[in-house]
Write a structure and sequence with these properties.
Layout (H helix, E strand, L loop, with lengths): L29 E5 L31 H19 L4 H15 L8 E5 L3 H13 L5 E5 L4 E5 L3 H4 L2 H13 L8 E7 L13 E7 L7 E11 L3 H14 L5 E8 L25 H6 L11 E3 L2 E4 L3 E8 L15 E7 L5 H25 L5 H5 L7 H35 L1 H9 L9
Length: about 450
């Protein structure tokens, strides 16, 4: 890890901007940007941002302020756009609005933002630029509505899917079916369709390898909302169900923090950490909390709360006579459950088992279509096991990881900016060596 000369505890002002003057009394958890219609304010971000280390011919200079770091990104995109596309001035402006959300720094941050008016050509250019520049955000594009959903998932965001992923893997491994003829996949963060790329946190699918078309049956989708509003998450679900009307089960997890994350304020105790010549390792940082990992133990270091959990809630929908309806109130088709602070998951687990039963029967039906002598009873025997304690432990552990990533992004950004005030060349060299922390804030 590169080290920097010792600096004073003073820090530069944070870059803040809005596109419509509007007073706010609380931090935004998710934002919506509409182009060509009503323009909403941009959510304040808190992303530690390393300049793009891209394959295109962009010349980046060391930023001397947070706003310079953002300008560096936008200038790089302008050069990239000119080299790669005949995109219009308006199209370039819209793309830059997306990049402002991704690269913006401030006292608060949102994990998710929704942009309207993004044309397919603009989406393709953005996706290419982000890939080339190693700015690995998660993009979900709804082409029919020209909507782009940009996510910056943290460890806490990803944590709830881990036990589900493990449970489905163990479940399918315990079932005896012909794996040469049926390809069962449990995938994380994979597009559901190349024609209309929506990226769910978890996808379970069964592919018929005896079909010339290699038909894929998408059976399960699972999403997590952290610092992301329910409306945006449901919009992704609705579009995915439209593309996959045969979907058998949809699972949503909602993890809410006690307060939206904010980076340390000036003159706070946490600012003293900037005087340290190198960032703290994860072990040293988390040991400073003096507490064991637990949902009811916010990760607090030097008087600042880096991560906290208010509640964990789940909702499950299953396919009935008609495709999944996210608005249904039919208790035979939807169930809710709370894992924290009060555990009430009985109805939820029952609905999950109902969805799993449908998935198993789909697998049996496909198997029997290939071999009528398949032992269906044997295929129905293995259980699907999902443990509440495993979900709790996974999220509690992810709190520490998320907290340390937020600290690292904040520390790195502030130290690079401070160094650039004295030695721009040294700051540029140091900045190029930094990992890209912004995507896991």
């Amino acid at each position: 890890m590169p080290t920097l000369p010792k600096t004073s505890s003073s820090t530069p002002s944070f870059f803040r901007t809005s596109y419509k003057k509007k007073s706010t009394t609380s931090s935004w958890r998710s934002s919506r940007f509409a182009f060509g219609r009503k323009l909403e304010p941009v959510a304040e971000g808190s992303h530690g941002f390393a300049p793009p280390r891209a394959h295109h011919t962009a010349t980046l200079t060391a930023p001397t302020s947070t706003s310079d770091r953002l300008s560096c990104l936008l200038d790089s995109f302008s050069r990239f756009a000119r080299d790669k596309s005949d995109i219009s001035t308006i199209g370039e402006h819209i793309c830059k609005m997306v990049l402002i959300f991704i690269g913006k720094s401030g006292r608060t941050k949102a994990e998710c933002a929704e942009f309207s008016g993004i044309k397919p050509k603009q989406y393709e250019l953005l996706a290419y630029f982000l890939e080339e520049s190693r700015l690995k955000t998660r993009l979900s594009y709804i082409a029919e509505e020209n909507i782009l959903i940009v996510e910056m998932p943290s460890a806490v965001h990803e944590a709830p899917l881990v036990p589900f992923h493990a449970a489905f893997i163990c479940f399918f491994r315990s079932i005896d079916f012909n794996r040469l003829l049926l390809n069962v996949r449990v995938l994380c963060n994979t597009e559901t369709s190349s024609n209309n790329p929506i990226i769910p946190d978890l996808r379970v699918s069964i592919q018929d390898m005896t079909s010339i078309t290699k038909k894929v049956y998408v059976s399960v989708l699972r999403e997590t909302a952290l610092s992301q509003n329910r409306r945006t998450l449901l919009k992704k679900f609705r579009n995915t169900i439209k593309l996959n009307p045969g979907l058998l089960m949809a699972i949503m997890a909602e993890v809410d923090e006690i307060t939206g994350y904010r980076s340390p304020k000036k003159k706070s105790c946490a600012m003293s950490m900037l005087r340290e010549t190198s960032p703290r390792s994860s072990d040293i940082f988390n040991s400073a909390t003096g507490t064991l990992p637990a949902l009811d133990n916010p990760v607090k270091v030097e008087g600042h709360t880096w991560c906290s959990i208010r509640s964990i809630r789940f909702e499950v929908w299953v396919h009935g006579v008609e495709p999944i309806d996210l608005d249904t109130t039919d208790r035979n088709l939807v169930a809710c459950g709370t894992l924290y602070p009060v555990e009430d998951m009985i109805a939820l687990h029952a609905m999950i088992q109902k969805g799993v039963w449908a998935i198993r029967e789909q697998l049996i039906s496909l198997s029997q279509g290939m071999n009528p002598h398949v032992d269906a009873n044997a295929m129905r025997a293995p259980p699907f096991i999902l443990d509440n304690d495993e979900i709790v432990t996974t999220i509690a552990g992810a709190m520490s990881e998320t907290a340390h990533h937020r600290y690292m992004a904040w520390y790195m950004e502030q130290r690079v900016v401070e160094l650039a005030k004295r030695d721009a060349h040294a700051a540029q060299i140091y900045s190029k060596e930094l990992p890209v922390f912004h995507m896991v804030l």
